[in-house]
Design goal:
- With about 120 residues, the protein is mainly α.
- It has a three-stranded antiparallel beta sheet.
- Strand 2 and strand 3 form a beta hairpin.
- The two termini are about 30 Å apart.
- The mean pLDDT is about 90.
Length: about 120
């Protein structure tokens, strides 16, 4: 496997693994419809999300009770399905934030230790 391909695979796994977290963060500020979620993610991250990727996740999160969803018919030429966090979703997001901060803190410490060891070996 070439180094570029390995890097692309790793980045894809990282993006996929954090997409649910990114979606919950996006709707935490208030209700959004699917396309608005996609646009928000593209505006604030380099996550390029297609409808074929996001709508199954939104459906699963709704079935799991993490998101509530409803249709609004009178604000656009076609109905829009809006999503918002439920109380369960707010708890899951809080847990995800805690886990994310803990994980990134550990990786940061590991990176700093590796850099110190590299400098000490020179």
């Amino acid at each position: 496997m070439t180094q570029g391909l390995a890097r692309d695979t790793w980045q894809e796994q990282l993006r996929r693994g954090s997409l649910e977290f990114a979606i919950l963060l996006t709707v935490s500020a208030g209700p959004r419809y699917g396309l608005a979620i996609i646009q928000h993610l593209e505006a604030f991250t380099d996550l390029v999300v297609t409808e074929g990727t996001i709508y199954p996740i939104l459906g699963r999160l709704t079935r799991d009770g993490v998101l509530a969803a409803w249709w609004v018919e009178d604000e656009a030429p076609h109905p829009r399905k809006y999503y918002r966090l439920t109380p369960l979703g707010a708890r899951r997001l809080a847990d995800m934030k805690t886990e994310w901060c803990g994980f990134t803190g550990k990786i940061g410490r590991l990176m700093r230790a590796a850099e110190r060891a590299r400098r000490g070996a020179e």
